[in-house]
Amino acid sequence: MNAWKSIAKEAFSQTCLVAKFLGFLHLTNNYLISPTLVYGPSMLPTLNLTGDVLLVEHVSHRFQKVPKGHIWIQGDNMYASCDSRHYGPVPYGLVQGKLFFRVWPPSSFGSFGQ
């Protein structure tokens, strides 16, 4: 009987460890930092059409003084960007994060000065 108690205790311990790890991943990905894949021409020439892997942080936009609950967004490629110049200010609640680091391709690896 003690063997079963020991096995059950170990299984419970491992389950708790996995649950903590998954919780940590969820919090990190949704509220701190997450990877994202670039696609589309709106940020040319700064970012490639496809293939760039970026890290986006989700913290700074929560602490900056954004005028009246909206932000203004603009892509680098003014001729191919569908941004605030076309549809106006974006409600602050729609902001998911802020780009701060390019992961891929290796030749462009590095942070963005924002």
From TrEMBL:
Per UniProt, the keywords (alphabetical) are:
Hydrolase, Membrane, Mitochondrion, Mitochondrion inner membrane
Q: Does the keyword Hydrolase apply?
A: yes
Where would one find coiled-coil regions in this protein? none
What subcellular compartments does it reside in? Mitochondrion inner membrane
Tell me where in this chain the Peptidase S26 domain is found: 64-104
Q: Which GO terms describe its cellular component?
A: mitochondrial inner membrane
Bilayer-spanning residue ranges:
none
Mostly located where?
mitochondrion
Q: What one GO molecular function would you report for this record?
A: serine-type endopeptidase activity
Gene Ontology biological-process entries: signal peptide processing
Recorded superkingdom: Eukaryota
SUPFAM superfamilies the record matches: LexA/Signal peptidase
User: In its UniProt entry, what is this protein called?
Assistant: Peptidase S26 domain-containing protein
